[in-house]
Amino acid sequence: MLYISNIINYFNRELDGYATKNEINSWAYIVIEHLFGYSKADYICNYNQKISKSNFHKIFDIVKELKTYKPIQYIIGETEFFQLKFKLNNSTLIPRPETEELVSWILKHDFSSVLDIGTGSGCIAITIAKLTNSNVDAMDICDKALKIAELNAKINSVNVNFILNDILNTEKMPNYDVIVSNPPYVQKSDILKMNKNVTEFEPHRAIFVDDNNPIVFYRKIASLAIKSLNDGGYIFFEINELYHKEILNLLNKIGFVDITLKNDINDKPRMIKACKK
Questions:
Q1: Residue 1 — pLDDT band, cuts 50, 70, 90?
Q2: Range list of β-strands (E), 161-222
Q3: Helix, strand, coil content of the chain in percent (nearest 5)
Q4: Helical H runs in the chain?
Q5: Which of 11, 137, 138, 253 could join 125 via S-S bond, C-beta 3.0 to 4.6 A?
């Protein structure tokens, strides 16, 4: 007979060598919550609950996929961001903790209109819409990503205006109080240095840029934002720590003021805020 108490040990036995023990335990708890709806505290209280054959087969299949280095979020098709549920597919990036930090920073400001450029799963736009009374627009070049974002907006009971558009071919935008973007910023030459769970499963178009123009999205978005932001409005970026000086100089040259570089929880320069006069 199989019990919930067996799941942690099963994950550690089968996945030893594929990840750290902490990562493996994290995956196991994510699966327990996904299949049974139990938090860690609930898991302890339901330690001796029997597992059906159906759920055991699901667990077996999940572990099998984890051995291919497929991220757990893609395997179960969802993740959490700001304690909200978000569906994912292979057209959407997995939201990272650094992006939660960026959203926390944005939420400390007053605004009534927001544009999220390169929205992906919609995590930034939907969280802001959920936690403020702002009018929120969200743009992406990928229609498959936008369909998932639209679903996530329904799941989280918010209204977001989703726009299918290529920002690099955009010449003009409406006015906003805040423009935010977590655009592609990893050089294509770095692909060989990255883990399989990223390079083989996450959408390359949302990650990589040409080596000869690594800040192309920042340059384009900033040049549009300086015209379309309302006076006193803000632009927020998640950035590649390697190019923070170039992006700071870019924003200064374009005419932004009160430019602030912020470190993430790992003490790396990963976020920038700038104000339009």
A1: low
A2: 161-164, 176-181, 186-187, 208-209
A3: 45, 20, 30
A4: 5-15, 21-36, 40-45, 53-66, 72-76, 97-106, 123-131, 143-155, 196-199, 216-228, 244-254
A5: 138
3-class DSSP assignment, residue 135: strand
The pair phi, psi for residue 195, each rounded to 5°, is -75, 155
CA distance 39 to 32: 8
Write down all domains in the chain, each with its CATH number in brackets. Answer: 5-67 (no CATH), 90-275 (3.40.50.150)
Helix axes 53-66, 21-36, angle to 10 degrees: 140
In whole angstroms, give the CA distance from residue 57 to residue 66: 14
The residue whose two tokens read 């179960």 is: 76
> For 91-215, where are the alpha helices, taking DSSP H only?
97-106, 123-131, 143-155, 196-199
Structure tokens at 193: 């240095």
pTM, to two decimals: 0.94
Tokens 């067996």 identify what position? Answer: 6
Provide the 3-class DSSP secondary structure of residue 230.
strand
Q: What pLDDT, in 10s, does the model give residues 89-136?
A: 999 999 999 999 999 999 999 999 999 999 999 999 999 999 999 999
Least confident stretch, 3-12, 114-123, 228-237: 3-12
